[in-house]
Amino acid sequence: MSRPAAAVNRVIKAYDVRGLVGEEIDEQFVAEVGGAFARLMRDEGADRVTIGYDMRDSSPSLAAAFADGVVAQGLDVTRIGLASTDQLYFASGLLDCPGAMFTASHNPAAYNGIKLCRAGAKPVGKDSGLTTISDEVITGVPTFDGAPGTIDDRDVLADYGDFLRSLVDISALRPLRVAVDAGNGMGGHTTPAVLGPLTSITLLPLFFELDGTFPNHEANPLDPANLVDLQRHVVDSKADIGLAFDGDADRCFVVDERGRPVSPSAVTALVAGRELGREIGATVIHNLITSRAVPELIVERGGTALRSRVGHSYIKALMAESGAIFGGEHSAHYYFRDFWGADSGMLAALHVLAALGEQDRPLSEMMADYQRYEESGEINFTVADAPACVDAVLKSFGSRIQAIDHLDGVTVDLGDGTWFNLRTSNTEPLLRLNVEARSSDDVAALVDDIGAQIAAQTTEGGTTR
């Protein structure tokens, strides 16, 4: 069957598939996506697809429909069942086959989606397969004349945990009390498998029950409101560190022993330094939203800093092209060459735990080594006309602008370590702002100035921050 192009393109986005279940995504739709994906992978030589899914109520049935679409095109399917996204990437690498992960990550319960990859967790994005898939869903997926594929099941959770621990030297780990907020997401599934066997760690779990309705808070630690429970838990339990995972547990956020969030940029710099310690001169990727401290520290540690636009499919492609040893994003996605160039928040967490546990300072003091500037964090605005808002902001700064680029949205350098980036979201109807400066007062003033310009341009319903 054919489908309206506008409806398909609204759901098949720049680097994944995502939409409202029942309205934009249903079993028939994902079966067609599965068929188109199978045809693309078969043309590239694949004969099997591995499938995992998160704890959302809609995930099992959607994953089953996708599997039906794949086997109808003659490819076999290996189901790994409940999984984090990085566990699915592990299965893709282990089995050397393409993969599909059913999740809407941090989005609310009404949403679901699919993250697709080639064998070895290689990305499938708009420019590397998603456009082909969407075009075929629009015109209608052709019927396959051969025999259908088969479906089998494989549990890879223990293997995933063993593999991650093999990548980080944890031999010098001192006893640590580790608070973890899984947000009722897949971190509650993977954390015990990865951290549980480490006898030096006392695990202090919070919201480990898998529940796709997210009864305690949204599984989006990028929003400070969703870190409050963990911050309180860290202080109350006298933990040495707090870890928060998003819904599909591919991102990890860190809270220090005082209950204060640690910037993902600082985590990127820390992990980069550890990876460069074992391969001096290696390339490390950072997206354009990370702190300027990240490329500075990469160069100081003898590495080559490579700047990227935001988004996992872009960074994964750049990881492969450049042979980079590591990559980090402001959103707490962390990519590792030893993990097939894919992202794993759990692997980043192991690096932070290893760094903390091999020395005696508290986390707050250790991470101060990586914090040179003040950041706003990502601020979201819902606006009537995003381009008009961006134009108004740029005009308001006039001659104060020292440099500007358009690698991803617009990045404006105002000099003396002060810069901001405005970009539209690839997954949500939002205008995103990131600001960095030498002091928190400078950051606050710049955020207020930009926010005022955006508000002045908004003609429908005001702005939502």
TrEMBL record:
CDD domains tied to this protein: PMM_PGM
Q: Which GO terms describe its molecular function?
A: intramolecular phosphotransferase activity; metal ion binding
Tell me which stretches of the chain form a coiled coil: none
Alpha-D-phosphohexomutase alpha/beta/alpha domain residues are 11-128, 159-259, 269-373
The record's listing under Pfam families reads: PGM_PMM_I, PGM_PMM_II, PGM_PMM_III, PGM_PMM_IV
| Highest taxon above the source species | Bacteria
Similarity remark: Belongs to the phosphohexose mutase family.
Specify the protein name: Phosphomannomutase/phosphoglucomutase
